[in-house]
Amino acid sequence: MEQPLPPTPPKRRRNGALSDEIRLLRTLVRRVEALADEGRTLGEMLSIVETLARASAHLATLLKAERQLESGQTMADLLNQMLDEVIAEMQANGQPAP
């Protein structure tokens, strides 16, 4: 028997509150858990969890960028830092750097 997914969280306020992002990620984890209860295959679950992990990492980068922009860091500094992080992630995954 299929269980309903947990409700979608209310729209987030744009105030950069980390607690809002954590609440959203917790909701997504509960939704993944509900999918596991539906009898999804291991491959499907791993794909979902991998996607969630990537989204979490990108969210962390965006939150960091937002904080740095608010602190007065220039856009060029921020872009250079983000490019360095992307290159490091690509190399860690065995992909050639651009």
Q: Quick check: average pLDDT?
A: 77
Q: Give the structural class.
A: mainly alpha
Indicate the overall shape.
Answer: flat
- Residue windows where pLDDT falls under 50 for at least 5 positions: none
Beta-strand level of the residues, as a percent range?
under 5%
Question: What is the N-to-C succession of helices and strands?
Answer: HHH
What is the straight-line distance between the termini?
48 Å
The number of helical runs is: 3
How many strand segments?
0
Major sheet details:
none
Q: What percent of the residues sit in helical stretches (DSSP H or I)?
A: 55-70%
Radius of gyration, in Å, reads 17 Å
Give a structural overview.
The chain is mainly α and 98 residues long. 68% of the residues lie in helices and 0% in strands. Helix 1 packs antiparallel against helix 2. The mean pLDDT is 77.
